[in-house]
Amino acid sequence: MPRKKKDNKKPRVNPELQGFDIYVNSFGEIVSNYDIDQINAFLNRNVKDKKLKNLPISSKTESQEAPPSTTE
Question: pLDDT tens for residues 2-59?
């Protein structure tokens, strides 16, 4: 049986990520042409977090409040 030929077609991507390229170099490091902050901002806008789906929305929780200042 003949082997299947690999398709070297580029995958269909979101227009915001056009030109995004990521790979693993010979040292095992992940290398990308986009800054990690740009990738995180895109994911925050477009991906819903399953863990936060059922939580009530509140403006401030007790764990986020700053302790009172004790400057004298």
Answer: 787 777 777 788 888 888 888 999 999 999 999 999 999 999 999 888 887 777 776 5
Is the full-model pTM beyond 0.70?
no
Every domain of the chain and the residues it spans = 18-47
DSSP state of 23: E
Helix (H, G, I), strand (E, B) or coil at 59: coil
DSSP summary character for residue 18: T
For 38, list phi and psi in degrees, rounded to 5.
-65, -40
Rounded to whole angstroms, the Cα distance separating 61 from 51 reads 17
